[in-house]
From TrEMBL:
E.C. number: 2.5.1.47
Protein name: Cysteine synthase 1
Catalytic activity: O-acetyl-L-serine + hydrogen sulfide = L-cysteine + acetate; O-succinyl-L-serine + hydrogen sulfide = L-cysteine + succinate
Species: Brettanomyces naardenensis
Cofactor(s) the protein requires to work: pyridoxal 5'-phosphate
EC class of the enzyme, as a word: transferase
Protein localization: Mitochondrion
UniProt entry keywords in alphabetical sequence: Amino-acid biosynthesis, Cysteine biosynthesis, Mitochondrion, Pyridoxal phosphate, Transferase, Transit peptide
PANTHER family with a match to the protein in the record: CYSTATHIONINE BETA-SYNTHASE
Summary of the function given for this chain in its UniProt record: Catalyzes the conversion of O-succinyl-L-serine into cysteine, the last step in the cysteine biosynthesis pathway. Can also use O-acetyl-L-serine.
């Protein structure tokens, strides 16, 4: 079974005995990549990258999981694999069926890859404000994209509800329901968190990341806290994300003001994945867009790493988490995807100027807004 196949450390990723004892090589001569049977077998076992600049700045070892190295290009490949193969185990979809989901982009791309590899049709409902390249990528993978206007989750015309209704109207169709299907969380318990634990030989002091569907944060946190309840875990929120007031108010409020230019994170409700483990959160960080964009360009300038806005926000959160644990601690977060899909947004000078996210930047970082 490819789910188990991908989760069984196929790439022989070398364990880090401790953060300070690692020989950081420019090329790992000891790594033997796996031979996999198809697309699904290549999911997971991504490197954990220590970021030198922010580690030195904070006095902690800040590590980010390089999820752009999944075959579909993002952390969502893991959820897509588990969502489909668990459904197959339960007999919820048969050969030749249709996979339907509501997605801001990366889950849609991952499901389009996985559905094509498994011989399913795929239909993705997507907010019409998402980066055009995301929609184009889903279409290039042979899936159907249905862009819809952005409305609140409580509205029946929300993209998630439209996707669910469409799936119910078909014979032999699966609505994967990434926001409330706990197979999403299980994917990260079985793979992402397990890999992190092995890569750092259990020496994890804190974990933080943002929440879209919530599967990554919930699954990794659940696994790590089960291993060691003293590990700290923090949610990270852009403007407009209900998770931040929910955690800060002890579950009383989800009221928010403002919006963010980030994509795929910051829901105006609490997803089923987050709700299942929010009691394990040690706190939450509010990350303004200006801090996210600055870090986006710092990662290129200081590390040569080209990622999207969610990944950059996660690094800002990791620097905040580093201040809450002792010096020398190991803080882990997620590089969700690369920056390629966002060229016309976050790397566009005119887009940044339109959203008041350019003029404040340090002069040496402005050159990375290289698109018109």
């Amino acid at each position: 079974m490819s789910l188990l196949h991908s989760a069984a450390s196929l790439r022989s990723v070398a364990s880090l005995r401790s953060a300070t004892a690692v020989r950081y090589l420019s090329y790992n001569f000891d790594l033997t990549p796996a031979v996999t049977d198809g697309f699904a077998g290549a999911v997971g076992n991504t490197p954990l990258i220590r970021l030198r600049s922010v580690s030195e700045e904070t006095g902690a070892n800040i590590f980010a999981k390089a999820e752009w190295m999944n075959p579909g290009g993002s952390v969502k490949d893991r959820a897509a694999l588990w969502l489909l193969e668990k459904a197959e185990e339960r007999g919820e979809i048969r050969p030749g069926g249709t996979v339907v989901e509501g997605s801001a982009g990366n889950t849609g791309i991952a499901l389009a890859h996985m559905a094509r590899a498994k011989g399913y049709h795929c239909v993705i409902y997507m907010p019409d404000t998402m980066a055009p390249f995301k929609m184009q990528t889903v279409r290039m993978l042979g899936a159907e994209v249905r862009p819809v206007p952005v409305v609140p989750f409580a509205d029946p015309m929300n993209f998630n509800h439209q996707a669910e209704r469409y799936a119910k109207s078909l014979d032999n169709a699966l609505y994967t329901n990434q926001f409330f299907n706990l197979d999403n969380r299980q994917a990260h318990m079985d793979s992402t968190a397990t890999e992190i634990w092995k890569q750092l030989n259990g020496k994890v002091d804190a974990f933080t990341c943002s929440s879209g569907s919530g599967g990554t944060w919930s699954g990794v946190t659940h696994f790590l806290k089960d291993k060691n309840p003293n590990i700290k875990s923090y949610l990270a929120s852009p403007p407009g994300d209900s998770v931040y007031p929910f955690v800060k108010s002890g579950g009383i409020s989800i009221d928010v003001d403002g919006e963010s230019v980030t994509e795929g994170i910051g829901q105006h409700y609490i997803t089923g994945n987050v709700a299942s483990d929010v009691k394990l959160a040690d706190g939450a960080f509010f990350i303004p867009d200006k801090e996210t964009i600055t870090m986006l360009f710092r990662l290129i300038d200081e590390e040569g790493i080209f990622v999207g806005s969610t990944a950059a926000l996660n690094i800002v959160a990791a620097t905040k988490a580093a201040k809450k644990v002792p010096a020398g601690s190991n803080v882990v977060t997620i590089f969700t995807d690369s920056g390629h899909k966002y060229a016309t947004k976050y790397f566009s000078k005119s887009f940044l100027q339109e959203h008041d996210l350019y003029d404040f930047l340090p002069e040496h970082l402005k050159k990375y807004a290289a698109m018109p």
